[in-house]
Design goal:
- The complex is a heterodimer of chains A (111) and B (114).
- With 111 residues, chain A is mostly beta strands.
- Chain A is built from no helices and eleven strands.
- The termini of chain A are far apart.
- In chain B, the strands form two sheets. In chain B, strands 2, 4, 5, 6, 9, 10 and 11 form a seven-stranded mixed beta sheet that branches.
- The chains are: A mainly beta (111), B mainly beta (114).
- The interface between A and B is medium-sized, with 25 and 25 residues.
């Protein structure tokens, strides 16, 4: 029962262009969504989050969009930089409880 | 201020053995959560400890157990190891009832079961 899905295992973009990572969920009780970045041999690090009462949240080059009717969220990175190359996980929670993660998307930003 | 640390970094065990993994939480954090990340998958919640008691559990059998100590550090114990227990085990520390974006992960322990 995969409640959070990231259907693209990998994504490759050119430096300076936009990276768009997608995530779908099935549990309508999720009310808080987060994106994490993970480098090899390190734990996931928090990137950006969004509450279900919003449809957009921005932090510098990172923007998360939430479409509740479609149960879909996306992370936009503009402009993409080679240092952004990592595995990106989306995660969801209900009322601040445990995190439910997607499978991750490997982003590669080519110089 | 030290971050979340885990030990050991790597571990190899054989099927049927028992293993103990350790996690030191970030300074000031009183809650520890454990996650299992199998190869090619996202982390899956095992359980959380707060005030030295289990405070929520995911879909893992009872052979996965844990402890939290008065200094908020934590252990994850797995008995009767199975091949499918091979994974990266992550712990995350936080302050109870604070936002999840204030939860910090350690680098993980890579467990291989042969």
């Amino acid at each position: 029962d995969q409640q959070v899905k990231q259907n693209s295992p990998s994504l490759s973009v050119q430096e300076g262009r936009i990276s768009i990572l997608n995530c779908d969920y099935t549990n309508s009780m999720f009310d808080y969504f987060l994106w994490y970045k993970k480098y090899p041999a390190e734990g996931p690090t928090f990137l950006i989050s969004i509450s279900s009462i919003k449809d957009k949240n921005e932090d510098g080059r990172f923007t998360v969009f939430l479409n509740k009717s479609a149960k879909h969220l996306s992370l936009h990175i503009v402009p993409s930089q080679p240092g952004d190359s990592a595995v990106y996980f989306c995660a969801a929670s209900t009322s601040g409880s445990r995190l439910t993660f997607g499978e991750g998307t490997q982003l590669t930003v080519n110089p | 201020e030290t971050g979340v640390t885990q030990s050991p970094t790597h571990l190899i065990k054989t099927r049927g053995q028992q293993v103990t993994l350790r996690c030191s939480s970030q300074s000031g954090h009183n809650t520890v959560s454990w996650y299992q990340q199998a190869l090619g998958q996202g982390p899956q919640f095992i359980f959380q400890y707060y005030r030295e008691e289990e405070n929520g559990r995911g879909n893992f059998p009872p052979r996965f157990s844990g402890l939290q100590f008065p200094n908020y550090s934590s252990e994850l114990n797995v008995n009767a190891l199975e091949l499918d227990d091979s994974a990266l085990y992550l712990c995350a520390s936080s302050i109870h009832n604070r936002d999840l974006n204030e939860q910090f992960f350690g680098p993980g322990t890579r467990l291989t079961v042969l």
